[in-house]
Amino acid sequence: MGGALLVAGTTSDAGKSVLVAGLCRWLARRGLRVAPFKAQNMSNNSVVTPDGGEIGRAQALQAAAAGLEPSVRFNPVLLKPGGDRSSQVVVLGRAIGEVTALSYRQRKAELARTVHETLDGLRRDFDAVVCEGAGSPTEINLRANDIANMGLARAAGMPVLVVGDIDRGGVFAHLFGTLALLDPADQALVAGFVINKFRGDPALLEPGLRQLRALTGRPVHGVLPWREELWLDAEDSLSYAADGVVGRPRPPRGRQWLRVAVIRLPRISNATDVEALAAEPGVAVRFATEPSRLADADLVVVPGSKATVSDLDWLRRTGLAEAVRAHAARGLPVLGICGGFQMLSRRIDDPVESAAGEVPGLGLLDVDIAFAPDKTLARPTGAAFGHAVAGYEIHHGQVVRRGDRLVPLVELPGSAPEGVVSGGVAGTHWHGLFENDDFRRAFLRWAAERAGRDGFVPAPDVAFAAARAAQLDLLGDLVEQHLDTDAVLRLLDEGAPAGLPALPPGAPPLEP
Asked: pTM for this one?
């Protein structure tokens, strides 16, 4: 069996996903066959695997870090929230139904078997498996049925690294408290800590690191510095800047900026679609939650949604629906992606996702949408704006009628076209279109022309795949330079050290 370890976090967004990606990159560069694994992810950011399954986007990024294609084995259970109390359950890439928080507990035993069998298979096939926990391992109200954190670590006998985000403040309390809330058998697997997003002189941390080791009997295996350029493939839209800005906007190559407003829907899915736009010099991408943020936008994007009808109702209640219509009425470009495309239609018939039946869309595109019971999962190719494109599809809604005067967005070989363009309004079910460099530049030229931004010039040299690969390499570098990599290798080879103390140990006095 290959070695395995679990990266747990003191909170959501503490750095689990990026640390796992960095460890996978570093191990792969050492020549090891390494695979990522997340037993249970809760996210509406997902991708389609080559065999037609669906997994969390973070695990696809971690697979890329390991030099692998995404696989349903890397994320056997995916929960896609469609409301505050219900989620769609995807098991080994296929949706099996909807659950509430309470009904999901009843399925945990069955899902645990799937999780453990999948992890065992990976450990047989790979030299190392780096597992990512979910949320915090100290959700003590959920511990009895846990399959993603300490429950997984106990079942597999895996050592655990706990990562905390120092940029949020209180990292020592988070790390100590996480350990202290675990029962002794769980504590015995926690082998050490990692501190993430540190700004400043590491020497300032040294007294705290020594005291944390004295209090817990466990070392801090590394302090990862804050790096401004790490922002691609955020786990969810809330990971972006507080002001809603996506990425690190760079000065334009021409005389003008192109300003993009992306509506942050309550159940937004695949928010990462717009990250390739934000990687372009002179393109300023910002999420918007109220109408005034659309007032100075050149391009408005209505992104994907896991709850199309509900989020459409939210658009109307917030005034954003009228703001989108007004933007289009001025001849300015609007793009709908997946659920956003469906919202731009004339009519939506949804007996599946919301059970709302027939509801009017925004009426900006002359198409009708009907939801099918089976989800479309595909990785198609075609041509758009004169360039070869590839993308992926994850949706229940289907175009059942399209107006005769609509122009296809994507031409598909041997089948009906995909998506539509009508004046300055476009829609598509495809995710990932902007990752196609030539298409992205052509689309930006089209949007700039519609918006009257003659001084905007798309950069001819931005390669999005290379930008993502550079970020993965940077993560591997951070692991190599700032983690005790010898200790990590020992954990993979030998498991958690024996004799780790349980808390409270009769803590020694703090140093002055």
From this structure: 0.93
